[in-house]
């Protein structure tokens, strides 16, 4: 639960993102739609507002009564735990969907401002003279605005509710992501561990105890918004990120196939390619007959990430990453080459003679794990030409079957 008594929806949601999302939904649907705090105070512009409601809200008293009415139905929808359709203080139908984040009622999405078919008579029961005095609005303006109040079929009400629910779900998931961000980071940090030289143990580079259902629903919601916004690259990037996280967070095998690991790397490289645009290109060329062989999990990604961050990123024009593989004397060698800034000769010499001291954490883990599983003849081999290229070779034995345990594991 959130323990902040004065927390508001606007503390959790970027106002510009919310305004743009609300506007796009309104443009797609043509329904009057807006987001409000629990007290009925509207956020930003009320999209597609009917002339009658605009006119009533133009007076101080009308605006007060509208806000009070919206606050009332929002609180009712929260207490009942579901969306509501109600008559506002002027008798028009309105829809309300509560926004509840981590158990706190922080607002609602509202839409409507219409009569349902069969209620046309209500248009003619307004006391125009009384309304004119009460809200200080001219009779002619009132008559014209009342004539424009829409009368809609019942299906229209359900469609309006559906769009309100979509926007409310989107806001809720974004809010939950921000509320739990620190919690997730702390949990990931606590669960990150590496057991050095622990033979036959489940060794993983990354472990995170999070709720995959919430995470992937959030990503899918963002992807749907990207679809509505006609952003195919953003949509594809989100789905790739979802698959990448799903692979990294699930209980993966200790020795997945090379094919599985390469598919995961391709998702990672696709995302980085979108990020770096023309500065990053990549090619993967691994013979099909090698794809069914086994490799320790999460060996490739730290090395590819290292190539991007330390090899290509410092280079103004970027570069290319090549991934290839071959078999030599029952040993599989996977080569990861980048055309980045390379490694100065002095630093490379030190790295080659003191690998455990010089490698970054992720690369060091990969090297140590290969040594742990297969012995000192296996691990990483690094070569580099400054300002030309860096090549990291991953050496490990050929094997496909996991049972019985291969003889090279002591």
UniProtKB/TrEMBL annotation:
<dbReference type="InterPro" id="IPR050640">
    <property type="entry name" value="Bact_2-comp_sensor_kinase"/>
</dbReference>
<dbReference type="Pfam" id="PF06580">
    <property type="entry name" value="His_kinase"/>
</dbReference>
<dbReference type="Pfam" id="PF10114">
    <property type="entry name" value="PocR"/>
</dbReference>
<dbReference type="InterPro" id="IPR018771">
    <property type="entry name" value="PocR_dom"/>
</dbReference>
<protein>
    <submittedName>
        <fullName>PocR ligand-binding domain-containing protein</fullName>
    </submittedName>
</protein>
<dbReference type="InterPro" id="IPR010559">
    <property type="entry name" value="Sig_transdc_His_kin_internal"/>
</dbReference>
<dbReference type="InterPro" id="IPR003594">
    <property type="entry name" value="HATPase_dom"/>
</dbReference>
<dbReference type="Pfam" id="PF02518">
    <property type="entry name" value="HATPase_c"/>
</dbReference>
<feature type="domain" description="Histidine kinase/HSP90-like ATPase">
    <location>
        <begin position="295"/>
        <end position="400"/>
    </location>
</feature>
